[in-house]
Amino acid sequence: MRVSFYIKLFLAFIIFAILLLGFSSFAFNNFYEFDKQKKDKENIVNILNHQENSFKSYVKLFDEKLFLLNQKNFLDIDEKEKSLNIFKKILFNNKDILEFKVISLDAQEIIKVTNDSGNIKIVPEEKLQNIYSNSYYKNIRTLKEQEIWHDNSNLEKPTIINFILREKNYFLILKVDFSSFFNDVYTNFDKKTLVFFDNNSVINNIKKDDIILTNQFNSKKIYLNENKYFIFITDIEEDENNNYLQEYYKSIIIIGLGLSIILALLFSKPIAKLNKKIEDENKNLDLSIKKSFIELNENQKVIDKHIMFITMSKNNIILEVSSAFCYFLGFSQGELIGHDYKMLIHKDTKKKDYLKLWKFVNDGKSYVGEIKGIKKDGESFWVDLFVEPNFDNLEQIIGYTIITYDTTYKKKIEELYKNMNNQVEQYNAIFENVNSGIALIDLEGNFKKINSTFSKFLKYKNEELLEMKCIDIVPENSKELLSKILKEAREIETISNIEKIFVKKYGTLIHLELSLSLLSDKKHFVFVVNSLEDKRKLQELNQNLELRINQEVEKSIQKDKLHQQEQIKNAKLTSIGSLAAGIAHEINTPLTYIKGNLELMEYDIFDLPQSEIQERMKEDSSKIKEGINRIANIVESMREMSQSSKEIKEKTNIYATLITSLTMAYNRSRQVSKIYLNDKLFDIDSINKNEYTYFSKVQKQRIEQVWIIVINNALDELVKINDYEKRILNINILEEKNEVIIRFKDSAGGIKAEIIKDIFEPFISSKEHSGMGVGLNIAKKIVDEQDGKIRAYNQDFGAVFEIRLQKCEEE
């Protein structure tokens, strides 16, 4: 049986009303509870703030009593009764004050007044004590004059607070019991407030077990001084008298449900009639859509015939193409569909334009631009195109639609105008300087146009110059320089006022000023020359040039000598390395023999009866083992340093190369300075080359040579310091992004300002009696060969040499 729309609508109204009433009542109840809790919390916060202000005011009251008493000069009064009256009047009018005393700077009590249940008396001098052992005395010794300190270090009764005022020659101490204040805090507010000391001691003698801490409470720290505080805690009580709300909710739900039924009856029938009317209208609409669909098919045929468009898949395969586009390209639809669209793109299309187009559409954006293509017969064309991505239901790109418009003729007209504008610019540039010699040359230096002034300067006819190049009118020794000037002018576009010597037709020389300007077509220069009368200036320039050439030649000779010396030194080092390798091998064999026999001997020593001789033999064998380990470390470093340097770069632990270099320099360094590696004092007896791993792809022996150069340079400077304790060399190795950083920092006073900029140049040295100044230059060359960087600077009264190498990831 089919249920009528009227009944369905009536039931829907009822269900909706029930859901709406239920949700409303639930939301209202939650809002009421939340608002109530919020107001309770705000009330508690106000109470805690009021209590804090009361506490601070009460503390301030006793501070003021101390300052007031200090102004009475009570120490100058001889009679105790007068002093006692002052104390009663100023201090003991408050029953919470338990005691007042004056303490000398050496902790001796000078005056002490007690309050025993209203009995106020001055303690006799013979009963005065020294408070040096009191816990708070160490805090008050550092007080400044007129500075006050609060202390409640009495663990048995933390409600007692000492108020201490520092004077020039003594301390004023006032002991106050805050028990009554805290009792008032607990009883005088509508919310019960519990007070705790910061060590969890309970105030008001209320046991901690009696405290009921709910999940909802507020607390506040109130500081007595910078590290002493009390904790005021107030719990949030829940109001259980809200039964009337439940009855109120029930009434609302019943009344709402009744109203819902009445409204459903009233509105269901009109809506059902309206639904019937809409159904009839939908039938008419379906007929209209069918007619529109027929018209749309007709329009699509028109679009296919007259609009050039193409549809592609995401992987650029043609899925659909209009008949108009096929006719324009000369292809049939069968020749295009299923093929890659790149077959239509001209090979002259710039890659960056192509990438820009697809970057837009792959980001989900539409693209408008132009592109050059090629037809079936090979003819090129230009089109304006609009590219839009196609999306599926999940908003993922599934293809592209491209609509094009032929702009080939427009592009050809623009090219014609561009050529005409270039020609106008050329003529304007030539005739703007009619008083100068002006020529138009191409990028290779061939003359294209010359004015009469230019021909007059060089005594050539125009026809003769048009068959020549610009380098043909300069001396032989200037041809290469002019070629460089032309090359530079291509990059910077303009070169002005260069003084040059030119050769006239009959071989005579003429001094002219040359300027070059690159035209907008980037294919031609305007070549402008002007006469120069002053030849002395040119002669001076030639002389300075000759002097500079001589200096550069001399510098090159010195560099060649340095290179020869380095080659000789490398040859010697190679020989020494071979010798060291042999020695290391020969030492290693007996060393192994000694080490093995020592281990056997240790077993025999441990088997001996315990005695003084056995203990002495154990100590001697331990010392021998330390010596053998030191020899083994030195031999191992000699063996590594003496290995043949490989020309290829390999993955190397830079920390291990530092250990090797420091071992080789240890004999000298231990007499000159302390050396710290990663903030740890270097000791040859405790070496672990794998303690840290910082890998870089370098030539191992070459990079070790750099470390030895830098270490020896630092030791040369540190030895100048008389005090050994002030000699320090810090070596730190760390990683930063993709680099391994090695810093050598000494305490030798830093690099002189006049040489720090050229410290890595050859023959630059700060040593007065030795050194050619080539070590750091060699070090820089090695670092450059390893694709690294080295720099030097001063920091904290010392020199820093920082080497950065490319980081190689650990496999």
UniProtKB/TrEMBL annotation:
<keyword id="KW-1003">Cell membrane</keyword>
<feature type="domain" description="PAC">
    <location>
        <begin position="367"/>
        <end position="419"/>
    </location>
</feature>
<keyword id="KW-0597">Phosphoprotein</keyword>
<dbReference type="InterPro" id="IPR001610">
    <property type="entry name" value="PAC"/>
</dbReference>
<dbReference type="GO" id="GO:0005524">
    <property type="term" value="F:ATP binding"/>
</dbReference>
<dbReference type="InterPro" id="IPR029151">
    <property type="entry name" value="Sensor-like_sf"/>
</dbReference>
<dbReference type="GO" id="GO:0000155">
    <property type="term" value="F:phosphorelay sensor kinase activity"/>
</dbReference>
<dbReference type="Pfam" id="PF02518">
    <property type="entry name" value="HATPase_c"/>
</dbReference>
<keyword id="KW-0175">Coiled coil</keyword>
<feature type="domain" description="Histidine kinase">
    <location>
        <begin position="582"/>
        <end position="809"/>
    </location>
</feature>
<dbReference type="InterPro" id="IPR004358">
    <property type="entry name" value="Sig_transdc_His_kin-like_C"/>
</dbReference>
<dbReference type="InterPro" id="IPR036097">
    <property type="entry name" value="HisK_dim/P_sf"/>
</dbReference>
<feature type="transmembrane region" description="Helical">
    <location>
        <begin position="248"/>
        <end position="267"/>
    </location>
</feature>
<keyword id="KW-0812">Transmembrane</keyword>
<dbReference type="Pfam" id="PF00989">
    <property type="entry name" value="PAS"/>
</dbReference>
<dbReference type="Pfam" id="PF00512">
    <property type="entry name" value="HisKA"/>
</dbReference>
<dbReference type="InterPro" id="IPR036890">
    <property type="entry name" value="HATPase_C_sf"/>
</dbReference>
<keyword id="KW-0418">Kinase</keyword>
<keyword id="KW-0902">Two-component regulatory system</keyword>
<feature type="domain" description="PAS">
    <location>
        <begin position="423"/>
        <end position="493"/>
    </location>
</feature>
<dbReference type="GO" id="GO:0005886">
    <property type="term" value="C:plasma membrane"/>
</dbReference>
<dbReference type="InterPro" id="IPR000700">
    <property type="entry name" value="PAS-assoc_C"/>
</dbReference>
<dbReference type="InterPro" id="IPR035965">
    <property type="entry name" value="PAS-like_dom_sf"/>
</dbReference>
<protein>
    <recommendedName>
        <fullName>histidine kinase</fullName>
        <ecNumber>2.7.13.3</ecNumber>
    </recommendedName>
</protein>
<keyword id="KW-0547">Nucleotide-binding</keyword>
<feature type="coiled-coil region">
    <location>
        <begin position="528"/>
        <end position="555"/>
    </location>
</feature>
<keyword id="KW-0067">ATP-binding</keyword>
<keyword id="KW-0808">Transferase</keyword>
<dbReference type="InterPro" id="IPR013767">
    <property type="entry name" value="PAS_fold"/>
</dbReference>
<dbReference type="GO" id="GO:0006355">
    <property type="term" value="P:regulation of DNA-templated transcription"/>
</dbReference>
<keyword id="KW-1133">Transmembrane helix</keyword>
<dbReference type="InterPro" id="IPR003661">
    <property type="entry name" value="HisK_dim/P_dom"/>
</dbReference>
<dbReference type="InterPro" id="IPR003594">
    <property type="entry name" value="HATPase_dom"/>
</dbReference>
<dbReference type="Pfam" id="PF13426">
    <property type="entry name" value="PAS_9"/>
</dbReference>
<dbReference type="InterPro" id="IPR000014">
    <property type="entry name" value="PAS"/>
</dbReference>
<dbReference type="InterPro" id="IPR005467">
    <property type="entry name" value="His_kinase_dom"/>
</dbReference>
<keyword id="KW-0472">Membrane</keyword>
